[in-house]
Design goal:
Elements: E1 15-19, E2 24-29, E3 34-38, H1 52-75, E4 79-92, E5 97-110, H2 115-128, H3 130-135, E6 141-149
Parallel strand pairs: 5-6
Antiparallel strand pairs: 1-2, 2-3, 4-5
Helix pairs in contact: 1-2
């Protein structure tokens, strides 16, 4: 079933990566916000900044977070807290590294008498996060997110 969206049908995301002259670089988004990254020491880098793999995990968690918030606002439920933790696992398969799994754990705390709606928001978050939807056929995702009232 096709869902009608209140958001634009087509989006583009553009960033620029500039090498720092050492073992990392700077990402600049179209609005001039920046993220500095580096190669981990394990791979002969300085390990002074976040590594691209951590950025990948961060991007997925951020997308899940924002998708949850979109549904939370739509249902108009009181959100006390939302905490997500992510872990991507990778293996060297003889040719290179490949991410083989992604685990998301966390806790959502909602207002009194809103447990069921909070649980529904978690389900919808998992179903509609566009980053996880895009990679779910090549990376298996596991979720363990609890919801409680306060």
């Amino acid at each position: 079933m096709r869902v009608k969206s209140k958001y634009p049908e087509h989006m583009e995301y553009r960033v620029e990566s500039m090498w720092d002259g050492k073992t990392g670089g700077t990402i600049t988004a179209s609005d001039e916000r920046q993220i500095v990254y580096d190669t981990p020491k394990t791979y002969a880098g300085r390990g002074e900044e976040i590594c691209p793999d951590e950025l990948f995990v961060s991007a997925v968690l951020g997308c899940l977070n924002n998708t949850f918030l979109d549904f939370q606002r739509g249902f108009e439920i009181e959100l006390v807290s939302l905490k997500l933790n992510g872990k991507a696992t990778a293996i060297f398969d003889g040719e290179g590294y490949k991410i083989t799994g992604f685990q998301v754990t966390g806790e959502v705390v909602v207002g009194k008498d809103e447990l069921e709606t909070g649980q529904r928001c978690v389900e919808l978050m998992q179903q509609y996060c566009h980053l996880t939807r895009s990679v779910k056929d090549c990376i298996p995702f596991e979720y363990d997110i609890s919801v409680r009232e306060e």
